[in-house]
Design goal:
Layout: H1 7-13, E1 22-27, H2 39-45, E2 49-55, E3 82-84, H3 90-100, E4 104-108, H4 119-133, E5 136-140, E6 151-155, E7 170-172, H5 177-188, E8 191-195, H6 223-232, E9 252-255, H7 262-268, E10 274-281, E11 293-300, H8 308-322, H9 332-337, H10 341-347, E12 358-359
Parallel strand pairs: 1-2, 1-4, 2-3, 4-5, 5-8
Antiparallel strand pairs: 6-7, 6-12, 9-11, 10-11
């Protein structure tokens, strides 16, 4: 197996794309070399003039929960000032970036392969700021951990663009951060450079890269979590539990109103590459915190056959059919799905599984075979 070399590893050997620019590094705990050296000290050791750090949702240190940033004023490792981007966009984000006094922004964070994971949209918003401020923007590419061979689900309807989806990509998009940046830059027109991966092919999952897995956020502990997330993440737009507050977020799902019919109904669907085991869990925080929740654990038996988005949509439909008086969607589902089509189908009692196309990644400039 050929070990994948990330954009960070390649830039530390040849820092030419940033030259002597004052660099604002956009990163989190996933920004590491293969020996787990964080990107900020790695770039400083390579002679890159990193003068500021920018943190995304969950913060520079990854300690914050969903919907939170990081208020730490300085990085304890490098002493560099930290700028919290979460919740900022447009002119507010421009002012934050301008206050850092940098000439270039360098993005080094892992994605998880689902459109509604926000790290790449932090990248998108900062690319827009860089374009308005005349700054260089450099993406240090990293693999799509759930492979880049398959896209699943509809592309985003621009009318539903939000921080859980800015560009027209599928729910499971099959793209690297660098490929999303190139797609986005067709309209943003930033001074963009992508430092590509070497040794990565689209069919490779993260555990075939030779790279260490680092949790992208507090509720994304393992590759197994990331494999399930493009489907079970849709539960966040409903009143069911997606497993936050447990040791198996996004692999556990259920609701206090579920009963013994749920697992047999899901099993009868014959969904590819997955089995369902009945379980009970008590979330320590988040939706239904402190309540005993009856539901399922997803056991992915064949990740090449598994279709996470189809599975997630099927779970929502099954909950709607079995518990019509209890299960409910909310408008956030529209933002997760990228249109209101899924919510309208569920509310009307229609089978929404026909809304889940799959195929190869589309609409992007693919960097890897």
């Amino acid at each position: 197996m050929t070990r994948v070399r990330t954009g960070l590893e390649r830039l530390t050997g040849h820092p030419r794309p940033v030259g002597r620019d004052r660099v604002g590094l956009v990163t989190n705990p996933t920004g590491v070399l293969p020996d787990l050296t964080p990107s900020a000290p790695a770039l400083l050791a390579a002679g890159v003039r990193v003068t500021a750090l920018f943190g995304p949702e969950h913060g520079l240190r990854g300690a914050a929960q969903a919907g939170e940033g990081d208020a730490a004023p300085a990085d304890p490792v490098t002493g560099l000032p930290v700028f919290d981007t979460y919740g900022r966009s447009g002119g507010d984000l421009d002012a934050l970036v301008a206050s850092a006094g940098v000439d270039a922004l360098v993005f080094d964070m892992a994605d998880v392969g689902a459109r509604f994971y926000t790290d790449v949209w932090t990248m998108y918003d900062l690319m827009e700021s860089a374009a308005r401020l005349g700054l260089r923007f450099v993406v240090l590419d990293r693999p799509d951990p759930i492979s880049g061979a398959l896209a699943e689900g509809p592309q985003l309807d621009p009318a539903f663009a939000s921080f859980v989806g800015r560009a027209p990509v599928a729910v499971r998009h099959g793209l690297t951060p660098g490929e999303i940046a190139l797609l986005a830059n067709r309209t943003i027109k930033a001074r963009l450079d992508v430092v590509p991966l070497s040794g990565w092919r689209r069919e490779r999952y993260f555990d075939a890269t030779g790279l260490p897995w680092v949790m992208p956020s507090a509720n994304m502990p393992t590759l197994d979590t990331a494999i399930a997330y493009p489907g079970t993440g849709l539960l966040e737009g409903t009143n069911a539990a997606e497993g936050r507050g447990t040791t198996r977020p996004f692999e556990l799902a259920g609701a206090p109103y579920a009963d013994g019919r749920l697992v047999p109904a899901l099993a009868d669907l014959g969904l590819p590459g997955v089995r369902f085991r009945e379980t009970w869990f008590t979330p320590t925080f988040g939706r239904h915190a402190g309540a005993v929740v009856r539901g399922v654990q997803l056991h992915v038996t064949d990740r090449l056959a598994f279709r996470p988005v189809l599975t997630g949509v099927s779970m929502l439909h099954t909950l709607r059919v079995l518990y019509p008086g209890a299960f409910a969607c909310d408008p956030f589902l529209d933002l997760l799905w990228g249109s209101d089509a899924l919510r309208r189908a569920l509310d009307a009692g229609r089978d929404p599984r026909g809304l889940v196309p799959d195929g190869g990644p589309e609409g992007a400039e693919l960097l890897y075979g």
